[in-house]
Amino acid sequence: MSIVRNKKITRREYCRWTSEDMGHAINTSKQNQCGFNECCRRYNIPKSTFRRHLRSLNKKANENVVFGSTHNF
């Protein structure tokens, strides 16, 4: 007989960073003022998102230089 415990299911929070945060993080990283991990922690940006923007793989950022979410809640 196994015991099933109720687990609280929480929703993930996405896009907690702003376009200013991304801009500051990219400038700070390119000027070698802090490392990759430190920039991610300091500006609260996910590593995969920051890596994509640094490598200029984000099509939206390459075309219009727009950072952050376009969602209006």
From TrEMBL:
Annotated Pfam families: HTH_psq (PF05225)
Localization, UniProt: Nucleus
Annotated GO MF terms: DNA binding
SUPFAM superfamilies: Homeodomain-like
Protein name: HTH psq-type domain-containing protein
Record GO cellular component, one term: nucleus
HTH psq-type domain span: 31-55
UniProt-listed Gene3D superfamilies: Homeodomain-like
Major subcellular location class: nucleus
